[in-house]
Design brief:
Blueprint (H helix, E strand, L loop, with lengths): L22 H5 L23 E8 H12 L13 H14 L3 E7 L4 E3 L2 E3 L4 H9 L3 E5 L10 H13 L1 E4 L5 H6 L3 H14 E7 L4 E5 L5 H5 L13 H12 L6
Parallel strand pairs: 1-2, 1-6, 2-5, 6-7
Antiparallel strand pairs: 3-4, 7-8
Helix pairs in contact: 2-3, 3-4
Length: 253
């Protein structure tokens, strides 16, 4: 005997019976879904969820870029290049516009400008914005020895690793990708820098802070789609060409 479909239509009380499907869905294959299932959300090798609502910020890097690019200061001018106004604008953008939790990393007693004044600490209003967002300001100890000259970079990476979150700095960290002493932190950085390392710029014309977030959704990066051999093409160039076409329809994430 022919297979009988359960009799039901939209608008009938009680909801559809078990096993009911519209005839259209029985006759054609389901359309591909580009949204990654929640159950397949990426985790790091330790089974930790990524916290994309938190960002660790290297304050000295941000302040230096603002002082150099916007204020046009340079070494030898008698004033520090580092400017806390750049840090303030960065934190305001991240906490007020993007609603992110901000953890700032900076050397203790960091010399810098704030307006026309020279200061040796993070301004209170900047620290308060970090704390009000649920974050904090973490002070890097001043250590002697050449190998500790970039201790704030190392601390930025490790603070982000412990939180499994984003970190903001325009340094590419090429030396740390190879020379970080702690294996699990180094492996984490090599595996997830593409997804978690956030860059930025200051618009000299308007003095505004903006993020450079790229055009690849985070879930694609976490899946390793940017690594050679992860696609179906014969080369990385073919893989990236296919990925670019997929981006035309992929959801933002």
């Amino acid at each position: 005997p022919p297979m009988m479909r359960p009799q039901w239509s939209w608008g009938m009380p009680g909801g559809p019976p078990q096993g009911w499907r519209p005839m259209a869905t029985m006759l054609r294959p389901a359309a591909p879904c580009f949204m990654p299932p929640a159950a397949c959300a990426p985790k790091d090798p330790h089974g930790r969820d990524f916290d994309l609502s938190t960002v660790v910020v290297n304050f000295a890097n941000v302040g230096w870029h603002f002082g150099e690019r916007v204020k046009r200061r340079s070494r030898g001018m008698g004033k520090p290049v580092m400017d806390y106004e750049g840090v303030r604008r960065c934190v305001q953008h991240l906490t007020q516009q993007m609603r992110l939790k901000v953890v700032g990393v900076i050397y203790e007693n960091q010399w810098g400008m704030d307006g026309e004044q020279e200061v040796h600490a993070v301004p209170e209003d900047v620290a308060r914005m970090c704390e009000d967002s649920g974050g904090s300001v973490e002070l890097t100890p001043r250590l002697t020895g050449h190998q500790h000259r970039s201790a704030d970079d190392e601390m930025t990476i490790k603070c982000a690793y412990r939180r499994n979150c984003r970190f903001l700095d325009n340094d590419n960290y090429r030396d740390w990708l190879q020379q970080l002493k702690e294996d699990k932190v180094r492996d984490w950085l090599n595996s997830y820098q593409e997804m978690l390392h956030t860059r930025y710029f200051f618009d000299k014309g308007t003095s505004t802070f903006e993020l450079l977030e790229g055009n690849i959704p985070a879930y694609m990066v976490a899946e390793g789609r940017l690594q050679k051999g992860k696609g179906k093409g014969k080369s990385k160039r073919e893989d990236m060409a296919a990925l670019k076409k997929e981006l035309w329809h992929a959801p933002r994430a």
